[in-house]
């Protein structure tokens, strides 16, 4: 349980650091717009409940996939193909900034030595 709390703290700290980056903010807004538009589309075109449509959108963008739902209409299938190609790239781009934020927050906390720090330590010992 302690490791979960520490991991969650590290993730939230990384998100905090990532939100300071303009590119991350752009990715975040695009992902929110993509989730909203996908949810609206699947509720109207495929007659899914809002929570089911949002769940389908998130599982699709995170590349997990949804085991039970498959679009039934032709328009739904075309939209899903475009949604997967565009959305997965945006989602992975956003996740790369989250990972960058986690690494940066760890470096500021002193958890990770940079290459320069390691080189300086080695030079002092010689």
TrEMBL record:
Keyword flag Transport: yes
A Pfam family annotated for this UniProt entry: Ion_trans_2
SUPFAM superfamilies: Voltage-gated potassium channels
Localization in the cell: Membrane
Membrane topology of this protein: Multi-pass membrane protein
Keyword presence, S-adenosyl-L-methionine: no
Domain Potassium channel: start-end pairs: 30-99
Membrane-crossing residue ranges in chain numbering: 21-42, 78-100
Predominant location category: membrane
UniProt keyword annotations, A-Z: Ion channel, Ion transport, Membrane, Potassium, Potassium channel, Potassium transport, Transmembrane, Transmembrane helix, Transport
Highest taxon listed in the record's lineage: Bacteria
InterPro entries (alphabetical): K_chnl_dom, K_chnl_Slo-like
Name recorded for this polypeptide: CHASE3 domain sensor protein
UniProt source species: Paenibacillus favisporus
